[in-house]
Amino acid sequence: MLVAGVGVGVDAVLNGSTMRAGVSIGEVDVSGMTRDEAIDAVDAHYQERIASGTVVVFSDEETAASVDLDAQLAQADAIAEQISFEEAQKSKKLWRVDASTLGASLPTERLADEAFAVGRGLSGVYDRIGAALGGKTVPVELAFDETLLENLAHDVDQAIGVVRVDFDVSIDDGVASVVEGHDGNMVDRDAFSENLSACLLAADPADASFVAVAEYAPVRVDFAGAQKTCDVINAALRSGASFTHDGSTVSVDGKELGGWIATEVRKLGDGHILAPVIDDEAATPALVSSVNAHERGSEVVVSISVSDDVVTVEPQGEVTVPELGVALDVLDENLFGGYRSSGSADAAIVSDPIGIATQQISGPIDFDAALSYGIVSEISSYTTQFVGSSATKNRTHNIHLVSDLINNSVADANGGLWSFNDVAGNCNEDAGFLPAGAITGDEYVEEAGGGICQVATTVFNAVYDAGYAVPSRTNHSLYVASYPAGRDAAVSYPDLDFVWRNDTASDVLLRATYTDSSITVTLYGVDPGFIVSSETGDWVEGEKHATKTIVDDTLTPGTSYTKTAGTDGMEITVVRTVKSKDGSVIRKDAFASTYSPVTEVIIKGPDAEDAGADGKDAAAA
User: Fold this and answer.
1) Do 313 and 304 meet the contact criterion of CB atoms below 8 Å apart?
2) Are strands 209-211 and 54-58 parallel, antiparallel or unpaired?
3) Cα(318)–Cα(314) distance, rounded to whole angstroms?
4) Beta strands 547-551 and 600-604: pairing type?
5) 478 pLDDT band (50/70/90 cuts)?
6) What does the pLDDT average to over 344-365?
7) What are 91-130's pLDDT values in tens digits?
């Protein structure tokens, strides 16, 4: 024991700050290095490889064995803007990604800590001997941005499998009911991450691909589990809720309370539970409205102003603002805390009145503060998606640019008109817009500003769902499958415009946000509480589409791809009914759309039999 103790002491002096002999981090031997030296060595070995590497994920073995990558990607990029985003995802055969698109990073500090720990601790002597004799390797695996990784995995699921949908609960008119779900076939997220990591770390680019595999993915919440949650929610809706402030009581019935309840899948023990929760963002503005209706006898009215992208909200008169953070937490715990922790539908629901403090707010306030107080809230929001790739970068640029132009625009109260052309201006080259896919005649062509109609369409659908009046809207000449049937909006300065009207007592703020594959338009203000329903008519057949073929001598002989997906002409009418909170009809709008046929355009290489001996040279050229 004395000899061993002396040995350990000597070892600690000699190797206390360095890695043990035989220890490697991936392909890097870090024996005798300090922690900082190991970090530098691993970074030097891997970082350039990761930064310059790309990964190709194939949908199946056949595609991996025979695909012409360039032709496949060219077709996917060419028609991605012409078919629905969902169709584009389902038709994919491969995905090419890199470290930046996955938010990949090398966790060198953690790896160095793991390597330094080898040979230390209770089993240190044995680990040290094992490392010296046979070596000890700390495996290298990249860390990914969880959202970006999930987005890619979800895309792959849509193409090669079936996305699992857990059973859920919907609440309508104060009554909860079960929403059907189904099992799926999905890529295993851990294995998918490991494959991507291995490919980006590979020294040979030939090893930077793999075939994705979809595995059986049963629902985490089945009908019985959703029904238990449904029963708990219905019990809460029957009990309602009440709040007290300054000697007054505000009661919330089941119909209103139902709008505050959301669900989410959570782990519970070895399984999962569909957990009901109180959505603070939904509850806060509703309670502010109720409190002020009780205090003042009228709802809140606000004006909104914007200066240098700083948004200011000014309520009319004083507004009573309840401090709801603690109160809503108490309500959430009273109604659903017992069920979430035990999974028992017999958990008691406590509906005693909950006390809330209030304060008086007046004068101009910052938008974020007004949002947090519940003075203004989200009225509606709509998102459309698009394919973001190197081939569509101009279109993405245009979408981002016009979104910035319309962001933080205001529709004035009491009949104020919001015009896309007035707000965005002329989206031409002088304004910084680039040539991209646009609709002209019966084909998709390159035109400055291509893509701005997707933003106009996103605004239209946000306005449509909110229930505001639409004095001017025109459909595209060609049907765009990425949008809901009959719910697109075409714009072209100065003649073709999209206009909506704010016929409520408060101003409405429009915000446009985006990613590299989506655009979201959100309307903020005092929610008028319009009840919107929609009826989509049947498609009426129109003129059949034509087909034309263009020969491209630079393509490999015998190959071809579809540049423009052909679509027959068609007509459709969508009827929107807007009702007030009390159920009376405010307006009923019929949006009729007539679409021309789209000419199918096929790009092909020279015929194989005509290429002859010059085929290889022609292809190479």
Assistant:
1) yes
2) parallel
3) 10
4) parallel
5) confident
6) 84
7) 778 888 999 989 999 999 999 999 999 888 655 555 556 5
pLDDT tens digits, 497-534: 999 999 999 999 999 999 988 999 999 999 998 999 99
Distance of alpha carbon 401 from alpha carbon 234, whole angstroms:
46
Give per-residue burial for 67-100: e unless 16+ CB within 10 Å, then b. beeebbbbbbbbbbbbbebebbbeebbbbbbebe
* 389: its two tokens: 């790739």
Backbone angles phi, psi at 10, to 5 degrees: -60, -45
Of 565, 587, 591, 567, nearest to 577 (Cα)?
A: 587
- Angle subtended by helix axes 189-201 and 146-160, to nearest 10: 110
pTM: 0.73
Which ranges of 53-145 would DSSP assign to H, the alpha helix? 61-66, 69-79, 85-90, 99-102, 108-117, 124-134
Mapped onto helix, strand or coil, the DSSP state of residue 54 is strand
Q: Cis before residue 557, ω within 30 degrees of 0?
A: no
Q: What's phi and psi for 275, nearest 5 deg? A: -90, 125
Rounded Cα distance between 24 and 19, Å, is 9
296, 261 Cβ separation under 8 angstroms = no
C-alpha pair distances (Å), 233 with each of 222, 346, 579, 596: 17, 12, 27, 49
3-state secondary structure of 542: coil
Number of DSSP helices (H) and strands (E) in the chain, helices first: 21, 36
* Tokens at 232, concatenated: 């708990």
List of residues 6+ apart from 341 with CB closer than 8 A: 347
Phi (first) and psi of residue 552, to 5 degrees: -120, 105
* Phi, psi (degrees; rounded to nearest 5) at 507: -65, 155
Residue in 231, 447, 482 with CA at minimum distance from that of residue 347 = 231
Contact residues for 124 (Cβ-Cβ < 8 A; gap 6+): none
The partner residues of 36 in beta bridges, in order of sequence, read: none
State which H helix or E strand residue 510 sits in: strand 508-514
Give the lowest-confidence range in 38-47, 285-294, 391-400, 427-436: 285-294
Give phi and psi for 20, each to the nearest 5.
Answer: -70, 160
CA distance 210 to 54: 12
> Measured between alpha carbons, how far is 34 from 4 in angstroms, rounded to an integer?
25
List CB contacts of 446: < 8 A, sequence separation 6 or more: 435, 436, 437, 438
* Separation in Å, CA 582 to CA 215, 337, 530: 49, 33, 9
CA distance 295 to 550: 71
Q: Which of 612, 608, 604 is nearest to 71 (CA)?
A: 604
Amino acid at 267: K
Given a contact cutoff of 8 angstroms between Cβ atoms, the answer to whether 460 and 473 are in contact is: yes
